[in-house]
Amino acid sequence: MLFCLPNSRGGKDPLSSPGGPGSRRNNYNLEGISVKMFLRGRPITMYIPSGIRSLEELPSGPPPETLSLDWVYGYRGRDSRSNLFVLRSGEVVYFIACVVVLYRPGGGPGGPGGGGQRHYRGHTDCVRCLAVHPDGVRVASGQTAGVDKDGKPLQPVVHVWDSETLLKLQEIGLGAFERGVGALAFSVVDQGAFLCVVDDSNEHMLSVWDCGRGTKLAEIKSTNDSVLAVGFSPRDSSCIVTSGKSHVHFWNWSGAAGVPGNGTLTRKQGVFGKYKKPKFIPCFVFLPDGDILTGDSEGNILTWGRSLSDSKTPGRGGAKETYGIVAQAHAHEGSIFALCLRRDGTVLSGGGRDRRLVQWGPGLVALQEAEIPEHFGAVRAIAERLGSELLVGTTKNALLRGDLAQGFSPVIQGHTDELWGLCTHPFQNRFLTCGHDRQLCLWDGEGHALAWSIDLKETGLCADFHPSGAVVAVGLNTGRWLVLDTETREIVSDVTDGNEQLSVVRYSPDGLHLAIGSHDNMIYIYSVSSDGAKSSRFGRCVGHSSFITHLDWSKDGNFIMSNSGDYEILYWNVGEGCKLLRNRYESRDREWATYTCVLGFHVYGVWPDGSDGTDINSLCRSHNERVVAVADDFCKVHLFQYPCARAKAPSLVYGGHGSHVTSVRFTHDDSHLISLGGKDASIFQWRVLGAGGSGPAPATPSRTPSLSPASSLDV
After folding, report:
1. What percent of the chain has pLDDT over 90?
2. CA 439, CA 434: separation in Å to the nearest integer?
């Protein structure tokens, strides 16, 4: 499960003493020529460059540059359902991490992607489910429960918002739900006046709410088994259906008049009778004649209708009328994950194991079908757009566009597991990502599309482009590192250094050397040919007492600065045989080609008070050396001025990720910043605005670290 923590940190004044060994304080001492910072009681000394006469002359405020969310890569299809809908505007709405994406596809049916995105960013933790109002404009989105920085639980909630303005209209159920919101549905027959919510508590509480007032009208414990879907009958708001593990429940709500607290919910169990009870019923759909179709884990589509109870299979509470199966059709091999009623009255079903998309006519007669390519995964959700065009969400976090006759092509793609590796192209708006799903992906930042991907067979943790852009080095979790040709995607070099995971790979600015930082405490240095295709061992940097976390080359390509897991800052003379520079004071004026080390004089102000040394995962200075972007462990991206060498420096803070942010990198021209969510598997592309950016800064940018804009209107 993904947890998202709030950004605000307890403010503490710096002290002159380091505190005890278990202290989580950051403390700073100014000793004339150096600044001393303490992490977990360990002193970290950083020497002040000779050109700085006083720390007071350094920048003290947040940067003039700001970030605006430009594009979100990915879709949460791996572990969520009922998460893909089409709005009245024609936009497709879905979610990933804490962001609800409103996507307008470009090109023709089945053609290339493109289009534009808008984003609803009002949620503070991962979005788990969606429902669209009958007016096609209002949207309800439910989020999971998170924890704050002290480990205290935060409450899940439902937002009802306007998809045209991206303004929140109502906040429903704050304090009423446990763990998270698992399923949502608007009523239909009464213009969407009511919202049904199922939470993720042990009892899976079922509640009905007045959408306009935000008041609870009824509530009941539904079942201890997982509930996967909920819906109002389109003909009668007093009828609610839920389905999930081994059950279909038909609920009668007596409070459809909308009087708070006076309504009651009573349940009738769906009777399977002579039919085998499936393990799961993930989806259902209402037919125009009042019958209900369910899709189950046995691959069957069952037609449910009202019938008198049999004495051998009495309904709950002794009811005389029950819901039973009146027809069955074996539709798929393996589970059915999605059902969709089309405008023409036919029904679409999406299969898991067989990846088939089948159109069914009256009497469940198969009319047409298509198969989703294996590398996209199984069908997770289906939405109908104009004409015969369909949008299909898959379990490998892709959105496909097309129709049953012409087939489908991807318009949105993403990773499926935790992300760590990120690098940007030296002269194109492209970037490369890798992670625990073993996929290495090259992304086109201008076209917002996947250029190519390959299977690494192992977990990729770090990557870097050669300055020529012709090859890219990728570090794996086994000590192996690969060099791939970016055009042919062929592996031109395959080397292993030790048997520990690699945390950083970095080419020197002239491209003649490659540094490999390992968890075996070593930095391996290789000489590289001019085209980057060939390499030979040059030496090793030996001296760190813990695993390597970050490193940077000097602008002249002769020196390396490195950080380690025990908060060391060491300097190395590569030209003189990878020699450790004992006198770190002599490196105070050295200029660095990149700045990704999280510890150093120029960036020590990014560390928050109370940090335990692991709160910052990644850091990147812009190429114009004006700002520093920081990825923290609390789902936030920060923007600081550079140099950031004043304790407790203010920053602009941006939310949206639903997990620890693992990496940030600026594109070659500083027009965009790329950030990676860890376990949420999301990739955010931020536009840099303001001084040195690609557009004017907002008139009144937020300067408060704990606040971030609720929505992004960029298209």
Report:
1. 78
2. 6
| List of residues 6+ apart from 661 with CB closer than 8 A | 617, 618, 631, 632, 633, 635, 636, 637, 675, 676, 677, 678
CA distance 432 to 98: 23
Task: Say if 349 falls within a structural domain.
Answer: no
Residue 686 lies in domain = 416-690
366 falls within a domain: no
Q: How far is CA 470 from CA 259, 515, 594, in A?
A: 67, 18, 20
Q: What total of structural domains would you count in the chain? A: 1
Return the ∠ at Cα 279 (arms to 277 and 280), rounded to 5°.
110
Residue-wise pLDDT tens digits, 452-489: 999 999 999 999 999 999 999 999 999 999 999 999 99
pLDDT for 558 = 97
Please give the Cα distance from 158 to 296 (Å, whole number). 28
- In eight-state DSSP terms, residue 278 is P
Q: Is the CB of residue 336 less than 8 Å from the CB of residue 349?
A: yes
Count, in order, helices (H) and strands (E) of the chain.
0, 56
53 found inside a domain? no
pTM for the whole thing?
A: 0.90
Q: Which residue has the tokens 């006076």?
A: 262
Whole-angstrom distance, CA of residue 502 vs CA of residue 461: 7
Identify which of 445, 397, 361, 389 has the alpha carbon closest to the alpha carbon of residue 71: 445
What's the Cα-to-Cα distance from 12 to each of 21, 645, 647, 648, rounded to whole Å?
18, 18, 11, 9
Go through 209-244 and write b for each residue having 16 or more CB atoms within 10 A of its CB, e for each that does not. bbbeebebbbbbebbeeebbbbbbbbebbbbbbbbb
Query: What would the pLDDT profile of 319-375 be if each residue is shown by its tens digit?
Result: 445 678 999 999 999 999 999 999 999 999 999 999 999 999 999 999 999 999 999
Distances (CA, A) of 178 to 6, 209, 421, 630: 18, 16, 34, 32
SS (H, E, C) 317-355: HHCCEEEEEEEEEECCCCCEEEEEECCCCCEEEEECCCC
CATH of the domain at 466: 2.130.10.10
Question: Is residue 625 one of the residues assigned to a domain?
Answer: yes
Amino acid at 644: C
